[in-house]
Amino acid sequence: MIIILKKEAAESQVNGLISLLESKNIQPHVSRGSLQTIVGCVGDVSRLDPGILEALDGVESVQRIQEPFKAANRKFHPEDTVVDCSGVKVGGGSFSVIAGPCSVESEEQIVAIAKSVKASGATMLRGGAFKPRTSPYAFQGLGKAGLDMLLTARRETGLPIVTELMDFKDIELFNDVDVIQIGARNMQNFNLLKEVGSYTKKPILLKRGMSATIQELLMSAEYVMASGNENVMLCERGIRTFETALRNTLDLGVVTLLHRLSHLPVVVDPSHATGHAWMVDSVAVAATAIGADGLIIEVHNDPPHAKCDGAQSQTPDMFAGTMRKIAALRKSLFNA
């Protein structure tokens, strides 16, 4: 349920409404937009009488939300959410490119890549310290040592770092991380989502599961937000279908749909979507053109010898060319 307030509603009337809702064990979320103020209601609203609420001073109208996701719903929060990632903003017209290797392999490697992607215009650095791998015999990441190397790269370049949390027992190791990524395999790890949401207000980059529907993605975001952290960014990286020519099947129309359904920023991952470095350039440009709020691109200085995902990793020179195209496109389409 959302309650739309009158433009002239006094602060005392808003506070009275909030007190009333809280007395009925409803959690109110106030969203103050440029045109109107909306109070979203989270909890069991079945016993709330819309007629009584509409009779209150300052209330314009009351609407029930049919979708199961509430906090992530654009009806609940009409204005775009802008997530601040240690000074780098994503959403609401602010565009960001996250770039770096699939895995942190050495301090020399991650620092060199960080410097090269920053020079090309990247605004955040990605790199996996803990890696979920299909095979138990594959490289699993460097763990805490990898996180320390990412922090060194941040000191060298100033780029905020984005890295994946796989297990909540490691959360304290992430206290200095700027953005916590929840990977596709953990998108429906609901205990992890609740624990992260209640533990930290750090930005969360939530990747769509390999077979997840749009509603399931938004419901996973809801778990984080309902637990107390509203700084969520959605990441579209394609889903698994019967097609085998590409690593995943990417429907860029999802960006437009998510923007209609939700106020949360949408980031596109062209690397995992395609699985081929030579395709990343065109898909990244297309994602930018359709209005994505950001991109996350794998970049490696020696892809043939990468410990994982070398086939889908751009070289620094390839990434620089992609960034030039993106800059020209955004200037042309969005005057940015």
Structure description:
There is one protein chain. The chain is α/β, with parallel strands linked by helices and 336 residues long. Helix content is 35%, strand content 18%. The chain has helices at residues 11-23, 50-54, 107-120, 144-157, 190-199, 214-226, 253-261, 270-274, 277-290, 316-334; strands at 2-5, 27-32, 37-42, 59-63, 83-85, 88-90, 96-100, 124-126, 161-164, 179-182, 204-207, 232-236, 266-268, 294-298. The strands form three sheets. The chain has an eight-stranded parallel β-barrel with strand order 7-8-9-10-11-12-13-14, surrounded by five helices. Strand 12 (232-236), helix 7 and strand 13 form a beta-alpha-beta unit. Helix 3 packs parallel to helix 4 (144-157) and helix 9 (277-290) packs parallel to helix 10 (316-334).
* Residues in helices, as a percent range: 25-40%
Record the strand order, biggest sheet.
7-8-9-10-11-12-13-14
Gyration radius, to the nearest Å? 21 Å
Low-confidence stretches: none
Structural class: alpha/beta
Question: Based on DSSP secondary structure assignment, what is the total number of beta strands?
Answer: 14
Largest sheet: 8 strands, parallel, barrel
Q: What order do the SSEs take from the amino end to the carboxyl end, as H and E? A: EHEEHEEEEHEHEEHEHEHEHHEH
What fraction strand? 15-25%
Query: What's the N-to-C terminus distance?
Result: 36 Å
Shape: elongated
The total of helices stands at 10
Mean pLDDT: 95
